Amino acid sequence: MLKLLKYEWKACARIFLPLYGVVLLMSIINMLMTTDSAQNFLNGIPSAILALLYVALLVAVFVVTVVILIQRFYQNLLGDEGYLMFTLPVTVAQHIWSKVIVAVAICLLSGLVALLSIAIIGADTNLIFGIGIMLDELGKAIVADPNGLGYMLEGILLLLLSLASSVLFIYLCMALGHLAKKHRVLMSVVWYFVLSTAAQFLLTFVLFGAMNGPMNTLMTALGNALNGVPQQTLVHGVLLGFCVATAIPGAICYAGTHYILKNRLNLE
Fold first, then answer.
1. Of 145 and 63, the one with more pLDDT
2. Which residue has better confidence, 173 or 127?
3. What is the CA radius of gyration of the chain?
4. pTM for the whole thing?
5. What is the DSSP secondary structure assignment for residue 228, as one 8-state letter?
C-alpha cells in the first residue's frame, strides 16, 4: 500500500508541484504590481493583464486537478496500464484507496495553494490583517470552549469525507462506463449525469418529505425529544450526523467500484 501511495504521489507531484510554483510566482508578481507606480504604468494595462493571467492560472489549477485525478484512475486501472497494475501483489481495495488518498491530498493542496496565493497578493492590504484577526479569534474560541477542538476536528473529518465521497463517485461513474463495449469514456460521462440527477432528485424528495406528511411529524417529534439536550451536544450530533450522511454515499460508491474492478473488469 505504501509503495502504491509513493508511486501515485510521485506521478501527481511531477505535474502539480511545478504548477503550484507558477501560481505562487504569479501571485508574488501581482502583489508587486499593486503599488501605485505599477498601477499607473501604461494606464494599468500590464497590471490588468497579469491579474487576468493569475485568475486563469488559478482556474487551471482546479481544472487540472480534476482532469489529472480522473486520468490517473482511468489509465492505471481501466486502461492499458491495468494489465500491469492488477498483476501486482496488492488487493483491489488497496488500488482504490491509494488513488482516493492521493486525490484527496491533491485537492487539499490545491485549495491551500489558492488561499496562500490570495494571501500573498493581499500582503500589502488589510487582507492579511483580517486573516490574522480571524485566526486569532478562532484560536481563542477553541481555547475558551472545551468543545471547540471537537467542533474543529469534526469539521475537518466532514471535509475529508466530502472530498473522498466525491472522488469515489467519479470513480464509480468511470467503472460503470467501462462496462460498455464501446464509447466507454462517453458512457462514463452519461453515468455521471444520470447518477448526479438521481442523487439530486433523491435529496429533493427527502427534503420535501421532511417538510410534509409523516416525515414532518417524525421531525417534529425528534425536535421535541431533543428540546432539553444541551446545545453543545446538539452541535456535535449535527456534525457527526453530516459525517455519517456523507460517508454512506461514499461507502456505496466504493462498494460498487470495488465490485466492478474485482468481478466485472474487462481491459480488452
1. 63
2. 173
3. 23
4. 0.80
5. T
Percent of the chain whose pLDDT exceeds 90: 11
Which are the contacts of 154, defined by CB distance < 8 A and separation ≥ 6? 236, 239, 240, 243
For residue 172, give the nearest of 253, 79, 266 by alpha carbon. Answer: 253
The C-alpha cell that represents 75 in the structure block: 489509465
Q: Which residue has the cell 469515489?
A: 168
Per-residue cell: 108: 487539499
Question: Per this entry, what is the length of the chain?
Answer: 268
Question: Comparing 161 with 147, which gets the higher pLDDT?
Answer: 161
Decide: helix, strand or coil at residue 142: helix
CA–CA gap between residue 44 and residue 185 (Å, rounded): 45
CA distance 155 to 164: 14
Residue 244 in grid coordinates = 455519517
Distance CA 135, CA 140 (A): 9
Closest listed residue to residue 101, CA positions, set 254, 255, 212, 262: 254
Question: From CA 118, how far away is CA 141, in angstroms rounded?
Answer: 25
Identify which of 23, 9, 11 has the alpha carbon closest to the alpha carbon of residue 112. 23
CA 231, chain centre distance (Å) = 30
Average pLDDT over residues 228-248: 77
Task: Report the distance separating Cα 128 and Cα 148, nearest Å.
Answer: 24
Distance in angstroms (rounded) separating the CA atoms of residues 268 and 258: 19
DSSP 227: T
Return the C-alpha cell found at 168.
469515489
